[in-house]
Amino acid sequence: MDLEQEKELVERARYSPEAFGELYDRYYDQIFGYALRRCANVEIAKDITSGTFLKALRNIKNYRWQGVPFSHWLYRIANHEIVNQYHKEKRIVSYELTANESNAALRGELIAGESELRRHEDYLELQQYISKLPSKYQEVITLKYFEDMDINHIAGVLGKPEGTVKSLLHRGIERLRKMMESRVNK
């Protein structure tokens, strides 16, 4: 779907639940995957995704088309939901599986490529390191390396200048590298 078609769909979604359903179907996996990569907990990711689409539905009449994919707005809402989740729990979201969640259950919940990543211990270890970074670094690293967005798109999602995004990405990667090196040197 090109931007013009998406713009038309968004306009229809303002008044049509069926059109919003098309947006939901189109972007659910992306937003769920992003939430899951940020919090590494299926239930929390489901809650964040549900909250994201609920807020989008409630506020779509106020949405202003800006010539960028609708997903930018959804990612922005998802970021707010993740921060709200963090504040609710007053701790960094756990990157470990709870006793009730097994790898088999995760495979059923995760979209195709993610289940493979989730089962690797290296991925889980990396997630633990990422979770220790400030939220601003978690956002840019996740969008860049797990959502495969370019700097321009990340800037659009976060509402920040490209230079700021580059700086945050550089600093976040540098902090991550130092944390990982300090573990190896112990």
Which features would summarize this protein structure in a list?
single chain, 186 residues, mainly alpha, 0% strand
Descriptive account of the structure:
This protein has helices spanning 3-13, 17-39, 42-59, 70-89, 103-109, 112-118, 121-131, 135-146, 151-158, 162-184. It is mainly alpha-helical. The protein contains ten helices and no strands. 75% of the residues lie in helices and 0% in strands. Helix 1 packs across helix 2 and helix 5 runs antiparallel to helix 6. Mean pLDDT is 81; it is low at 91-102 and 110-119.
Residue share in β-strands? under 5%
What's the total number of strands? 0
Please state the overall shape, judged from the principal axes of the Cα atoms: globular
Largest sheet: none
Question: Count of helical segments?
Answer: 10
Question: How helix-rich are the residues, as a percent range?
Answer: over 70%
**SSE string, helix = H, strand = E?**
HHHHHHHHHH
**How far apart are the first and last residues' alpha carbons, in Å?**
50 Å
Overall average pLDDT = 81
Rg from Cα: 17 Å
List segments where confidence is low: pLDDT < 50 over at least 5 consecutive residues: 91-102, 110-119
Structural class: mainly alpha
Write a brief caption for the model.
The protein has 186 residues and is mainly alpha-helical. The chain has helices spanning 3-13, 17-39, 42-59, 70-89, 103-109, 112-118, 121-131, 135-146, 151-158, 162-184. The protein is built from ten helices and no strands.
Helix-strand blueprint:
Blueprint: H1 3-13, H2 17-39, H3 42-59, H4 70-89, H5 103-109, H6 112-118, H7 121-131, H8 135-146, H9 151-158, H10 162-184
Helix pairs in contact: 1-2, 2-3, 2-4, 3-4, 4-9, 5-6, 8-10, 9-10
